[in-house]
Amino acid sequence: MTQSVTSKYLIDNDQDMRWGLTINTVGYQHIDAGEPYPPKAHPAGYSFLASKGRVLEEYQFVYITRGKGVFTSKSLSETEIKAGDMFLLFPGEWHSYHPDEKTGWDEYWIGFKGLNIDNRVTNGFFIPSEPVFHVGLNEEIVRMYRHAITIAREQRIGYQQMLAGIANVIQGFAYALHRHNTFEDQEAAQQIQKAKVIMMEKFGEGISPTDVAENINMGYSKFRRLFKEYTGYAPLQYIQELRLQRSKELLLSTNLSLSEIADEVGYDNADYFSTAFKKKNRITPAAYRKKLKD
Predict the structure, then answer these.
(1) Is the pTM of this model over 0.85?
(2) Nearest to 182 by CA among 123, 216, 136
């Protein structure tokens, strides 16, 4: 049996905390089938018995790259974890996890705290009742964890800020890949992708969200719900964003009048175009053109 553990436990200061995120721990461990878990190498504040669980004072993102096991917490009943899954531990939230005795597992982890992650939790990006993220086996995520371990080992000047950057990217990968992979399980994913292409090709022709829904043979209410889930935008808002982005390009790269640009991107008239542009960018199209060209 070959149990391999690589871990670092870090300290931070007031300056580090003002950065918005500080890293407490980062590491990797390989657990063979039948080996005890967790290893005994952890400090008292991190060690736990799987049968009793524990409560941490910071967040941790744990990534399983081999094997399988289970995870449970105060907010989630026992859930199977397999290679390619990540789970987020929340401060003050009881939890426990362990690999299957028949397979063991390989895990990476990074622990952190600060205003950056607190704000994401407050705004609902991460919630204790949904701590498991199906991201798949991703070489880039593994590379980030391994790079973080190297930085933590060397602890050069500014290492906390470098680690904070990696932790933020890992959070972004977990959130985005989980949403993508969950949505891709639905047949509607291909239809929504088709809708995006139609919008991109036809936004200058005054196409409406209802037209797009009909084009992909989907009821509008379902289309609107799935489109927003997939893109983060309501269909009409997405079309507006495409129009405004194209209008910026035309303002800077051509001498077309505002009426001509409005017509080119699908607005009924220059006044409507100017109102929409100013609402989005807090500056009129004419002032935007003058400011950037000057």
Answers:
(1) no
(2) 136
